[in-house]
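Here is one chain, start to finish.
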Amino acid sequence: MDDIKKLKPFINGSFTESATDTYSDSFDPSTGKIIARVPRCTAAEVNAAVASAKAAFTGWSATPVPKRAEILYRMRELIVEHMDELTYLVALENGKNWSEAQGDVLKAKEGTEQALAAPSLMMGDSLMDASKGYDTVLYRIPLGVCAGIIPFNFPSMIPMGWMTPICIACGNTIVLKAATFTPQSALRFAELYREAGLPDGVINIVTCSRHEAEILLTHPDVKAVTFVGSTEVGQHIYATAAANGKRVQALCEAKNHALVMHDTPIERTAAGIINASFGCAGERCMALPVIVVEETIADKLVTEIVKQAKKIKVGPAYEKTTKLGPVVNAAHKKSILDWIQKGIDEGAKLVLDGRNVKVEGYEDGFYLGPTIFDHVKPGMTIGDREIFGPVLCVKRVKNFEEGLALMNANPFANGSVIFTQNGYYAREFIRHTDGGMVGVNVGIPVPVGYFTFSGHKKSFFGDLHVLGKDGFRFFTDSKTVTTRWFDEEEAKSTKVSTWDGTI
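Its structure:
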């Protein structure tokens, strides 16, 4: 018990003991052991975090944009300096293997690097002589206090690559509600931001239940809410925060499909599917849990995927030879096991069963091996709903048209992929797929952070996406200024009317 950390919220630049008497457990998924006790922050503490952010906004928003960028540059250097530490922390609390955990941190660095472009991307527009003698300028200005609600699956990238850097580069302050399962990465980043010179109160982090988090959706001082999580919660957040006058971006569930055409190279395509389906133990909204395969190659492709999947090394996250780490905790593992049983009950053919995998020396870890269902039919929930685990479903179709229609019938549309050597089908797929992020022979079509992360349908609620130019638009408001000037003689001879307040 002496090794178990008792975490504290980060408010106004320091860690403060929570007044709560309710704590949750955070686990090392590789061993199954408790590594931290996570406070359920009180309503007063959430309100204090908002008050701290509001107080810091006055000075931070007045800080010149290049000066804000300088602090973010120092933060970028600290991420590089602490890369191994931050990578280990992600592997420890989330269960990603080493390279995946490092990728999580690198995405935080990438988001920070994009925020360095704030002096350019916050620029507005102008037009001289919009009317004779009148000049008009549009400025982009900070919003105020923003809130971010973080999921467990990317504890570095989402809070510290997506939510925080652009937000604060634009002159806002932020209150983050960290994921109960994986809060330590965000808290460590907050320390590094302090070291980089960020003023107290610009970043605040609380750990609380949904009940206390509701404060962030209705608080009059919170101007915007950014969220990543389930569709059910995302719809609630979007409706509640918008009804309270806030702008919202809610990134939600997915059930990404890939259409595999008959002309695709089998071995190479199988390797791409394996990486996309089982990487990060399937705990990512851009995972590839469904492939839609033309019948003429389905048997051959499934055989090759099973062959390659059997070679994947399952093991503890922080051992660098591990290819598939554990899922985040026991409750989530049970949820995935229930889904696998549901697939069997629905009549799908289980061609690779990962339920009984054992890792020597880590018998209490939350491990699942690659699991593959073939002959998944329309209407089977295992093929339509997000499982968020290392489970791949294979649907068989006759041709391109049937496959595309089947994919577009799904209510989620985060990403979609086609594997083909045919340029015509690739182009038609790009034009007609509902997916917001599209891959052609790319199993996980997540763009670099200079482009938006753009889900569609029930995968996203809001008007402006994260990252890219959308990110800067989301975290700023526009102010349009029209001016007119007179030379001295003209001013004497021209009668200028006084505006009476009417339009």
